[in-house]
Amino acid sequence: MKKEKKITLNEKEITITEMSVKEISIALEDIAADGKAVMEGKKPLATIDLLFGSEASQIVICKCTGLTAEELENDYSPTDVRKLIDEVKSLNLFFFEMLAKLVKVQASLPLTK
Question: What is the pTM of this model?
């Protein structure tokens, strides 16, 4: 059974959920597609991704909270987003451990074109 937790930010109740294995797989595909679009100049890097780097992806925050990217960027301060990230991480420990390993592997690879 997936875990969930309710928190209140800006007078809005937000339900944060644990991703299933399938949802993790989909999130990784979405992150890869988003990264490719950014690298190809088809879209800008999300402000949330700029603020928090490889620590957390806007895509994952949205998937785990039900918030839209627009809501994250328009309705919440960086401090609020930090609280969301901390709660998302607490319910999705396996995903974030895997993400940290992937970032380490990626950093060790030589740059290619």
Answer: 0.85
